[in-house]
Task: inverse folding
């Protein structure tokens, strides 16, 4: 199969790449662009470790084809901190020990950021349902939910 | 030395909630896990797996695959060594099948190619001719004398003659006169239980990058719970010397015991040796579920007698575990743990392991204990219900304590079970009101904990900072805990210490990150290494001051003169001594090597409220509280995290998770969609109560905390569901169809 040229914006930077027609966005990010923050936990859209946003929507990048991102705006975990300054969610996840092994953390942060952009004051139940597509096997989610709520409160106060 | 005489000491660093050193990398996507690195000229490896549960391999034809452009190497078991040691031979045979395939998903051959797509295409071109053999996946069926034989000649000597050749292991533990004990009982309950195999479910599939030259020198980067274990296994399976292999542990995306073995590293090395290029292998989720570590599946009978006041008079358990297609001794641990929470006059636990056509069992958090304790705690709960007794009072009446002869032999030292039960009883959760279709359950849990082989080097840097080098992958914050203990001992701030994980060439042997051993054993070794460095720093100060070495002590991070002839020298801090080290004898470091003993057992109690939907059989967890003895919680956040995470894994085991095999012996649910682990919306907050009953075997009183929390949930939830549904549940998982069937009869 012949590779196809694609032009997108990733974390604000115009990005061009070549990919196979059957290649996932996740493989493009990881194998072609060196953006390994998105993780492959399942490859079937069940675990959310590969979550990124595409035109403002959270997607499993393993379920999006690279060629589908032509002209799209992609945001990944690598674009979340601004230089040395962590996003409040990133900082609070560390303060609240909301990660153990950390493999699900990039996907959860991307999803949680998207939640708070849409709903700055969610209930615990809303946080839990929004993150139901992001599997974490270490924490039991308790500290994750608390961290999202603490970050939300800080962001509302800011 | 009783508890290092520090039982009542106050800590400056230990017990605080400091930031973890690997944190920023893990929230920004920079941390490098198993699949995150590439190498110049690397090839992509992929493994061909058996579609059959049990079959003889008649031939493997790789001609067409080898002819595909881009294919650089193909390996089969013929490319591996044949280790004499039975353990290594099993690992070799599990990495690439030899003669027979033993389960659906068993690796048969592997390819290295210039792209993932070519590797995928190439394995489809490998032609394997199988002679399909009868299979068995159920443990009870596998123990029948006429069952299909998974492997022959594998039984240990103490397995009685005349049993199925699948039976490999037999054990008996206990003491006292059972007959007399049961005769004293007012009520005897005898029940049989079954539990499905579950998977550790780490979110990061196994991944490695390997390079091996024709001279036998090689390197591996991989996600593992033990780089030294990977080295031993690879050396044995490849037939190369350990000194020639350098193994580096990547950041690890969960393990829970599941990454204490090797599946792909020897295969990647063999492909690299043959192709002359580095080879990367990343498992898919379906490969992880089909071919890596599930737990044992079990069938168990429990009989317990109790007086009407609630005293247990006798207890007996018979456990039949299957650890998959290989001999396995997990049942030994299940049998030892089963009745550990109780002070019993008469107890016996008998265990059997039978091979089945399932993947090789790999440890999962407290291996063997959750299932046997589930069965025991279910019967205890039923007795309490039948006799109208409070289940916490009954457990307190029968609880093991210091001096109790345990059901598995040793006499307990300082243990925290009674304190943990009392904390549960005093907690508002225990007396909170329940609504219709709701039930409350509780269970005790136990784990032995482990110490093991450990090396730590501690370097005093010339700027007054400290580097700790240890050899156990950090699976949930252990670098922070180790740095905290080193800082505590040295008397320096936490942020002056950095702990790194060594590769196998940089430090002596360390056992894998298992047995809840790291914070205990590596912490102990770090403290001892710090003491060695302190000793050296005191000597340097003595030299500078021109006084006797014995006249210097270490107080709050500084050498101070002490004793009648020491004189009056101002204290010299660690930084001041470090700055002039090159003038006083050279660099300063401390190290400690130990096979650590005294890990100190750990008990927990879980309380759980559930609501059962009688129309669907669905269970909702309404409230969940974990009580556990941590000895000393070095970093309370991560202790709580272990308690919460273990509880939720147990919730998954109790309610949803299950290896489902079809009639043909193939796994029916090798994906997270169908192998359903708990998600955030399934759960309430998990409340935690940490108790600290110091472990006499550790300088700061630390006990391992990682494994105990997965033990109680199975029975706590089953007891809650049984009380809510009004029917005693005896099989896991209690998935909605199974529970509905039990309710509707």
Result:
């Amino acid at each position: 199969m012949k590779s196809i040229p694609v032009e997108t914006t990733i974390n604000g930077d115009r990005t061009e790449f070549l990919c196979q027609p059957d290649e996932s966005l996740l493989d493009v990010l990881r194998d072609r662009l060196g953006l390994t923050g998105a993780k492959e936990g399942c490859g079937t859209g069940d675990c959310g470790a590969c979550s990124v946003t595409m035109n403002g929507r959270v997607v499993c990048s393993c379920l999006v084809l690279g060629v589908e991102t032509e002209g799209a705006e992609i945001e990944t975990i690598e674009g979340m901190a601004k230089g040395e300054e962590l996003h409040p969610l990133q900082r609070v996840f560390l303060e609240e020990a909301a990660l153990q092994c950390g493999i699900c953390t990039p996907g959860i942060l991307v999803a949680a950021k998207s939640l708070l952009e849409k709903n700055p004051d969610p209930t615990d139940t809303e946080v839990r349902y929004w993150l139901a597509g992001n599997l974490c096997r270490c924490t039991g989610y308790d500290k994750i939910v608390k961290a999202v709520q603490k970050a939300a409160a800080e962001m509302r106060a800011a | 030395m009783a508890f290092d005489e520090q039982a009542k000491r106050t800590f400056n660093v230990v017990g605080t909630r400091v930031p973890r050193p690997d944190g920023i990398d893990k929230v920004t996507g920079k941390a490098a896990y198993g699949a995150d690195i590439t190498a110049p000229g690397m090839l992509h490896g992929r493994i061909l797996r058996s579609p059959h549960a049990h079959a003889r391999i008649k031939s493997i034809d790789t001609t067409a695959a080898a002819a595909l452009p881009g294919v650089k190497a193909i390996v089969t078991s013929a490319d591996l060594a044949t280790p004499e040691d039975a353990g290594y031979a099993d690992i070799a045979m599990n990495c690439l099948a030899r003669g027979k395939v033993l389960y659906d998903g068993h690796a048969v051959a592997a390819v290295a190619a210039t792209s993932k797509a070519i590797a995928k295409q190439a394995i489809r071109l490998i032609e394997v001719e199988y002679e399909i053999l009868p299979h068995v996946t159920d443990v009870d069926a596998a123990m029948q004398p006429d069952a299909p034989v998974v492997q022959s000649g594998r039984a240990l000597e103490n397995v009685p003659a005349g049993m199925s050749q699948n039976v490999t292991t037999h054990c008996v533990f206990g003491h006292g006169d059972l007959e007399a004990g049961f005769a004293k009982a007012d009520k005897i309950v005898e029940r049989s239980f079954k539990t499905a195999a579950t998977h550790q479910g780490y979110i990061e599939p196994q991944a490695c990058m390997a390079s091996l030259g024709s001279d036998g020198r090689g390197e591996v980067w991989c996600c593992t719970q033990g780089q030294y274990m990977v080295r031993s296994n690879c050396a044995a399976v490849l037939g190369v010397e350990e000194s020639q292999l350098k193994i580096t542990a990547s950041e690890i995306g969960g393990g829970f015991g599941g990454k204490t073995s090797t599946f792909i590293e020897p295969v990647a090395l063999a492909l690299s040796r043959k192709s002359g290029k580095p080879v990367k292998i990343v498992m898919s989720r379906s490969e992880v579920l089909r071919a890596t570590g599930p737990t044992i599946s079990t069938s168990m009978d429990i009989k317990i007698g109790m007086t009407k006041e609630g005293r247990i008079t006798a207890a007996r358990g018979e456990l039949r575990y299957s650890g998959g297609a290989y001999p396995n001794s997990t049942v030994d641990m299940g049998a030892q743990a089963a009745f550990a929470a109780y002070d019993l006059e008469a107890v016996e636990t008998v265990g059997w392991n039978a091979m089945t056509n399932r993947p090789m069992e790999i440890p999962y958090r407290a291996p063997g204990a959750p299932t046997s304790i589930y069965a025991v705690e279910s019967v205890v709960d039923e007795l309490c219900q039948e006799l109208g007794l409070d289940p916490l009072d009954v457990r307190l009446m029968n609880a093991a304590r210091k001096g109790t002869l345990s059901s598995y032999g040793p006499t307990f030292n300082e243990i925290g079970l009674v304190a943990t039960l009392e904390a549960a009883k005093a907690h508002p959760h225990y007396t909170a009101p329940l609504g219709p279709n709701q039930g409350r359950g509780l269970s005790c849990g136990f784990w032995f904990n482990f110490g093991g082989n450990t090396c730590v080097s501690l370097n005093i840097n010339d700027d007054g900072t400290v580097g700790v080098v240890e050899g156990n992958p950090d699976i949930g914050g252990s670098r922070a805990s180790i740095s905290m203990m080193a800082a505590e001992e040295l008397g320096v701030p936490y942020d002056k210490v950095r702990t790194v994980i060594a590769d196998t060439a940089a430090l002596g042997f360390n056992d894998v990150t298992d047995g809840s051993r790291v914070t205990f054993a590596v912490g102990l070794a770090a403290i001892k290494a710090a003491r060695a460095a302190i000793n050296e720093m005191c000597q340097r100060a003595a030299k500078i001051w021109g006084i006797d070495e014995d006249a210097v002590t270490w107080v709050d991070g500084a050498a101070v003169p002490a004793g009648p002839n020491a004189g009056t020298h101002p204290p010299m801090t660690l930084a001041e001594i470090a700055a002039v080290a090159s003038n006083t004898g050279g660099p300063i470091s401390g190290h400690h090597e130990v096979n650590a003993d005294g890990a100190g057992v750990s008990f927990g109690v879980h309380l759980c409220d559930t609501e059962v939907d009688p129309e669907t059989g669905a269970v909702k967890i309404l409230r969940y509280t974990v009580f556990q003895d941590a000895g000393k919680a070095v970093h309370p956040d991560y202790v709580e995290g272990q308690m919460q995470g273990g509880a939720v894994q147990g919730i998954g085991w109790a309610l949803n998770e299950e290896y489902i095999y079809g009639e043909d012996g193939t796994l029916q649910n090798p994906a997270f969609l169908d192998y359903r682990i708990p998600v955030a919306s399934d759960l309430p907050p998990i409340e935690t109560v940490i108790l600290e009953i110091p472990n006499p075997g550790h300088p700061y009183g630390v006990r391992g905390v990682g494994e105990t929390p997965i033990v109680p949930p199975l029975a706590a939830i089953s007891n809650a569901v049984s009380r809510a549904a009004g029917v005693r549940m005896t099989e896991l998982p209690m998935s909605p169809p199974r529970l509905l069937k039990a309710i509707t009869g």
Summary: Residues 518-545 of chain B form the longest helix (28 residues).
